[in-house]
């Protein structure tokens, strides 16, 4: 009897060991922890925000643990390429330049640009109204490269800051005349800083998506399946309402499942038809 008991215990241990060895390692990702309301310090410790919820929900649906680091955005994509992370959870605008070097999931939010100015400052009704002005941007972001590309044409001066919070503070302190970033981040900054107000809105037609390395085609399919299921069951719509205070627009990336894998008309897009497999 004792021999049978030991044999049974040994079998249980072997099964447990096999299960542990088969468990996939945690997903590794990162955010800019100052880019409210997408990722920001929580009063209870750690970080919270739309993209924190998004990353955690993706991991939950993939039945994997996840580690989320916070760092300056300018270092996130190089760290991804170096193998530090599996994907980037920070809002990342899909551009043709980035698509040449990275894979992307389909878009989960539309991203338009918006300017933030001090309350009472001259209104900005067109980009040319900022000629001779200082525009603050988050270093390494899509807004940084966009503003710099337009610098010769518009005649503004671009100042880059390590975080979006620092770029907003530059406007508050009078070191910059305006800050340009994604419309959600700008709306959050205006809501939480009564001295600031929303200004010129620039529609881009671009989306935010999760970037991965070029060799991560299988992981992209897994992430995309989770994102599509979150659209179909309105999880992303609920997160949108919670963090941005409004429902997503019908037909927007937050509620639309796109065909194929990735962002249509961008390098790396895979048109293979598929049906999301949702629990």
Question: Could you characterize the architecture of this molecule?
Answer:
- This protein is α/β, with parallel strands linked by helices.
- It folds into two domains: 24-108 and 210-244, D-Maltodextrin-Binding Protein, domain 2, CATH 3.40.190; 111-205, D-Maltodextrin-Binding Protein, domain 2, CATH 3.40.190.10.
- Helices cover 36% and strands 21% of the residues.
- The protein is built from nine helices and twelve strands.
- It has helices at 2-22, 50-61, 76-81, 96-99, 142-154, 164-172, 183-192, 217-232, 235-244; strands at residues 27-31, 40-41, 47-48, 66-70, 92-93, 103-104, 109-118, 134-138, 157-161, 178-182, 196-209, 211-212.
- The strands form four sheets. The protein has a six-stranded mixed β-sheet with strand order 5-11-7-10-8-9, with helices on both faces. Strands 1-4 form a two-stranded parallel sheet. Strands 2-3 form a two-stranded antiparallel sheet.
- The radius of gyration is 22 Å and the shape is globular.
Question: What is the H level of CATH, i.e. the homologous superfamily of the largest domain?
Answer: Periplasmic binding protein-like II
Biggest sheet strand order reads 5-11-7-10-8-9
Structural shape: globular
CATH architecture of the largest domain: 3-Layer(aba) Sandwich
Q: Could you spell the SSE succession in H and E letters? A: HEEEHEHEHEEEHEHEHEEHH
Strand count, sense and barrel status of the largest sheet are: 6 strands, mixed
Rg measurement, Å: 22 Å
